[in-house]
Structure formats: structure tokens, C-alpha cells
Write a structure and sequence with these properties.
alpha/beta
Length: 286
Amino acid sequence: MSTTAVTSTPAREPAAAGGVLVGPAWLAARLHDPAVRVVEVDVSRAAYDAWHVEGAVLWNIYADLRDAEYRPVTTSGVRGLLERSGITPDTTVVFYGYGPALGFWLMKLYGHADARILDCSRDTWRAEGRPASSTTAQPTPTAYPIGEPDSRLRADRAVVLDAIGSTATTVLDVRTAQEYAGERFWPSGGMEPGGRAGHIPAAVHQPIDGLYDERGAFVDPAGLRTVFSAVDLDRRRELITYCTIGGRASTAWFVLTHLLGCDDVRVYDGSWAEWGTTPGTPVDPA
């Protein structure tokens, strides 16, 4: 099933330096461009199978970007994902869905030149009558000569351990208050068998509510700075963001770096799914 009607509702066009944010009108005009690949990033197939942006492929966070132990995908896994998604180093990749910034961050981690985020929600795309489909996309596989990940964008568990109590680095927990306080392991409210709930010692709690307007587009820079009120953004200090599986952490990274111009921001992509299930890692409250 496919729909192609487009309404006359005005749409925001690219709003950030370099055009990393694209409006729905921009994307709708390029859905059949072979140089553009659209990717929905979500936590299951359910939303994608119901409907998705026409021609989009699915990156399932739990199936494609994490292994059975919630560890981040390896370099060879990323290469395989890119190749079966029909992506080459010259492809413009546009992300949307539950965790578009996680896809964007992953592309930048491996040096991909042209990655972007759709600056509206799935609901807005459909409400405006943009092209949608329930047919699974099957792009022609490609070859992607992937390089090494950029350590300036990623922090592993050892780096985070060293950052605890550091005067040069702030560890930023962007989860909910209940997760930070140890009342739940997963944002949905559940606990993880064998896992510990809580937060990394000395981590600054900074939820990221209020990033989007009613259309699911990012608010203006002044509004974004207000969201990050727990952090002195003008103080030159490294930031490491984390959440549970990396989606919110990469969203915080995207906003801080690409929309607010902060330097020295890294994502701990193992996040609490790794930290809270690793024996011996320090957890507050103990």
C-alpha cells in the first residue's frame, strides 16, 4: 500500500549549519533519488511494518545496532548493515523515527560524509500526506569500505570510569528521574534480571524533555539551551552523554554539537544497558 498525496502545509527546511536537518518537503522531493537513502531507526518492526516513509529501510536498534547482550554493534556489523541497506560512501542518508540521532551518530562515527535528520515526527509526515508505504524496502546491496571508528565521538566503559570525578569531563545522564534514582532499569519501567538500576557516580542528571515543538521539529537554539540548564555550555569541558541504549544519548550529542556548536562531546553508546549489567562497575545509589 502506498500513498502519494501531499498537502500544502508549510514545512521547515534545513535549519542547521550544513543542512543536517531537512524538512519534509525537501525529503519528499528526493524519495526517488538513487543517491538518497531513508532509514527509520526504531526499537522494533511494529511501527515500520504498519507504515513508513516510502522507500525507507529499517534499522532495529535491538536487532541491528545491539547484540543479544545489548552491546553496541561491531565495525563489521556496521559494514554489513550499510551494505544491505544499499548505502555507499557517496549516499545521502536521512534518518527519522524513534532514534534518528543514533543512526546519524553512527554514520559520523565511521566518517560518512552526508548524513541528515528529518526535522519532523513520523506523525507529522503522515498527517501532511507525505508518501508512505507498508511494503518492506529491498535495496540493492552495495560494498562499503568502512574505516575505524572516530574515538573523538565515542567513549567506552574504561573512558567513563576514568571520567568519574574528573575536573575536565562531565558525565551527562539524560535519562528520566526514575531511571537516575534507580527506581527502574528500562525507560518503560521494567527492571533487568541481573542488572542494577541507578546512575554513574558523579553523573549530572540532565533529562532532554522539551527538544521538539508540536510538529516534532527541533525548537530554536535558545530553547535548546534552556533544555540543557544543568550544564554550563559556555565552559570548555568535555561532555560524555549516556542513557540506556544510546538513543537519547546520541540525541543529546546531536543537539549539543550540531545545533548548539559545542566541542568535545562523546557518546557512551554502551550506556546503562552495558554499565548496569557489568559486574564491578560503580553505581549510585549503591
